[in-house]
Predict the 3D structure of the following.
Amino acid sequence: MIRKLTLIFLIIIISSCLKEKRNIELLNSDSKYIQKHASDPVNWNVWSEKVWKNAKKENKLILISIGYFACHWCHVMQNESFKNKETAEIMNKYFYNVKIDREQFPDVDAHFSNIQKKLTGWAGWPMHFILKPDKTVVWTGVYMKPKKWQEHLMFIAKQIEKNPDYIYTENNISPKNKNKVKEIDFNIINQLLFKQFDTINGGLIPTHYRRKYPMPYFLSYLLKEYKISQNKKIEKFLKLTADKMYQGGIFDQIEGGFFRFSMDEKWHIPHFEKMLYTNASMISFYSKMYKTFNDENYKICAIKTADFLFSKMSSETPLFVGSLDADQYSEGSYYVYSIKELKQAFENNHNTFFKYFNISDENVWRDTSYHLFCMEKESDFAKKNNILKEKFLQKLKITKQKLLKIRKTKQNPEKGTKLISSWNALLISSFIELYALTKDQKYIDRVQKMVLFFEKKYSEDQRIKHYYLENRVSNSKTFPEDNLYLAKALIELYKYSKNKKYIEFAQKLFIDFQNKTKEGKQFPENNTSLPSIIAVQNVVYQELNKYYKTN
């Protein structure tokens, strides 16, 4: 009897240790997102190529869950489902559970995003896949409410028990049309695009729910097209979109900076997460808009966005963090205001500013809170309401300072910890563009510090990691995209500084990019947070070729 009890006790201890080891594995991750799942009752495993082998050994389906630190619905699903013991029991019994940070493994995320798009028509996060150990896709989906998630997992698990060949979703992901396009007709492409223009609110007509993304690379493409064609329809669309976004709720009217996307077609209510790549690319777009159309508002927008980055997304290094979380006490609680807070800030001018910031019953956010956006330009609003423009602007400035003061009493959005190389490279390029417009030395000073950081890291490791961390050594892999975008930024810096060390560093990085691509370490395909790999590759090649031919 004593021997039997001792054996049971040892089994409990070993089981406890194994669980603790698994939690320690998550806690030791570079990813704050992964670390947050260490206390879940779900037996999460970190991503590695051993996943398939381990799942086969355990004779389990693989459940892959992909998310990222700033993702609101990722947090919601964790709190509702992954922290729930009953749900965890189902997941642990039937599945080999794998938690992935998309910012840590952009190649894995891009691979599964492409599959999800082909199977369902779109992709989103938290992204979920159920696969067999032979990598056959059984099912894919995103956020689900707790009861539905439990029922769905049980249904699939039981079906597989009855029939190991069962597949819940269609697995035919091969393109139907395999004929190669011999020639691209940009006129046809543009005609198709024109049909998608939202000519009332700007941006493209939403195809999934009512969400609208700023899509700065698409807008920059249109800007190039306009410069060639002088098409008035494109000009009108670009100005409408740039104005509506800057005035709308997707742009933070108090502290500057763009949220990742709008939850509605009018740009009013955003998804309250701010990403470095969004803001870096929007600085570039608005700088180009100012250069093309000479509208002072576009330059102001670019400057305010840059100021936001300096204020809220700087790190202890010269680089910038990748994101600000969407959740504080609740989603967007840092950014929204109660009626009481608004009246406190507006004081005797509350009728004017209730109009200007669209405070009405139809624009309530949650629990009688309001997110601020504007329907008109400042000058247009002042004229319409018979207020002297200078007087209105002065009052608006004072009011925004009061609104900012109220914000500072709230819990700040939590910063991500990863300093992602490719995203910071985009920002280097954008700061150079902004410096060219403003001649403000702070942009070029920061750029030089950022480049110096990369030079030092490259000299230490002979490579550029996908991301770095502020206070610890990064275990990040290297991806070709990081070399490529940094090479492009260095070429742009060389053009302004004429310092040949930047072009020489760019050449080294481009050679690394080519070598890693040849090795089969492909860059993340269709990564929508970055401009076209092929377009950037061509630009870098042409610029380096031009330099070395003439020097």
Remarks:
- Residues 5-21, 170-182 have pLDDT under 50 and may be disordered.
